[in-house]
Amino acid sequence: MTRMRVDNKDIRDAQVFEILLDSFPDIIHSVDENGLIVFTNKKAESLLGYTKAELLGMNVRQIYADELLQNVNEGFSELKKTGEYAIESLLKARDGSKIPVEIRSFSIYDDNCNFIRTFSILRDIRPIKELQNSLVHAGRLAAIGEMAAGVAHDINNPLTVILLANQMMSRVLERNGSALHQQEHQQKLVSFVEDVKRASHSIEKLVAHLRNFSRGAAEKREVVDIFNIVSDSLFITKNKITGSQVTAESLVQKGMCFSEGCPNQLEQVLVNLIANACDAMAGQATRKLTVSMSEAKRGDVDYWQCNISDTGTGIPPHLLNDIFEAFFTTKEKGKGTGLGLSISRGIIKEHSGDIQVASELGKGTTFSVLLRKSTPPSSNP
Fold first, then answer.
1. The last residue of a domain, from among 218, 237, 265
2. Distances from the Cα of 235 to the Cαs of 157, 205, 207, 341, 343, in angstroms?
3. The domain containing residue 84 runs over which residues?
4. Statement to judge: residues 15 and 68 lie in one domain
5. pLDDT at site 225
6. Cβ contacts of residue 142 below 8 Å, gap of 6+?
7. Which helix (H) or strand (E) holds 213?
8. Do both 381 and 244 map to the same domain?
9. Per-residue b or e along 170-181, where b marks 16 or more CB atoms closer than 10 Å to that residue's CB
10. How many Å apart are CA 196 and CA 200, to the nearest integer?
11. What's 241's domain CATH number?
């Protein structure tokens, strides 16, 4: 562990650099042992909307988003102990707006290793977040584009049922218009109407899923039943699964596993993993996709682990460290952007989770999505 130690003379001399720090493009501030801001630069004024005089003496917790105050307290305590800390966080400007930042902090100690103050650099990462959101949205559209032929097929089938039922109803009405009181003809019409209703509902459901799936990345988080995420993901990839001659099985139970997140983003991750699994099983004698749940723990945090397993060719060990890198792909040219797994991991990281992979050549691969456990909504039993 590397710690910076200074004596009183060093602290006085450090004031010489304040003019230079004022011209720095990132927020720079220093906080004493009580959490009070004892130095800040002009970038903090322009970004947060406070004057330098207002910021000096303000408790640093006042410039962080309310929902992160517990994290701020824990991070400050950790920084005092370890001497160095790096994290993404969320600032709260004077007007209430939220600003995502990347923070790199160091602790300053005296010769007796007593904590004196912090030195922190806070970088505005809104442009990076906007780019990430654009990539997430592009990933969704790419997934829809890849499934376009299957979607057309899924819509065409119920449309054929509707057109045929409509044609049969017209014939019944033309030939037996005066005899509709007869039970046989009435039953035929009722049967055709039910066919139309079922087919229309199928199209309506598919269109609703596609509309939701293609929505923008800025979504409100909520407590979700992972069963619903898995079911919707399997539904939207149904044609991909069928076309790849894959047998899919979900072992996830309804009302058992809950997490907090953006449903469409989590669905995007599973859709990508399911589609990749289908591609990995091309040409295999056995093609089985299994989605299951297990429990996991990291430190004091409890997770649900959603496992997507296939019986594909497996991933070579030397590539396991590369598959999550942007633009890395093992697919043929024109059949993959190399962004799917990178975007998926980014989404799960944003949900305070992770994606792990285990693979054995010739036997298959399992991608495990770790999501923090949440308490079920009160409306659920």
1. 218
2. 15, 10, 12, 20, 21
3. 4-124
4. yes
5. 95
6. 337, 339, 340
7. helix 183-213
8. yes
9. eebeeebeeeee
10. 6
11. 3.30.565.10
Pairing of strands 258-261, 222-225: antiparallel
User: C-alpha 218: how far from its chain's center?
Assistant: 11
Candidates 127, 126, 139, 138; CA nearest to 344 is 139
Structure token pair of residue 213: 């799936």
Look at residues 168, 201, 218 and tell me which one is the last residue of a structural domain. 218
Report which of 89, 85, 87 is spatially closest to residue 115, judged by C-alpha positions. 85
pLDDT at res. 288: 96
Kindly state whether residues 134 and 211 are assigned to the same domain. yes
Can you tell me whether residue 135 is helix, strand or coil? Answer: helix
Q: Are residues 118 and 137 in the same domain?
A: no
Does residue 372 sit in the same domain as residue 270?
A: yes
Tokens linked to 97: 């707006």
78 and 148 part of one domain:
no
Both tokens of 333, joined, read: 């040219």
For the question of whether the overall pTM of this predicted structure is more than 0.85, the answer is: no
- Run means of pLDDT, 10 residues per run, the chain, 381 residues: 53 60 84 90 90 90 87 84 84 90 90 87 86 69 61 64 74 60 67 74 68 60 92 82 90 94 85 90 92 90 94 88 68 55 83 91 93 79 43
Query: Measured between alpha carbons, how far is 271 from 147 in angstroms, rounded to an integer?
Result: 11
pLDDT for 307 equals: 96
Structural domains counted in the chain: 3
Task: Give the position of tokens 């598959």.
Answer: 323
Determine the pLDDT at residue 273.
Answer: 92
User: Residue 110 is part of a domain; what is its CATH number?
Assistant: 3.30.450.20
If asked whether residues 85 and 193 sit together in one domain, one would say: no
Give Cα 286 to chain centroid, integer Å. 31
Predicted pLDDT of residue 139: 66
Handedness of CA 282, 286, 290, 294 (dihedral sign): negative
Question: What local confidence, expressed as pLDDT, does residue 310 receive?
Answer: 95
Q: List, in order, residues 6 or more apart from 379 with CB less than 8 Å away.
A: none
Please give the structure tokens belonging to residue 122.
């806070």
286 and 156 in a single domain? The answer is no
Token duo for residue 128 = 């990076």
CA distance 44 to 42: 5
Residues 6+ apart with CB under 8 A from 71: 89
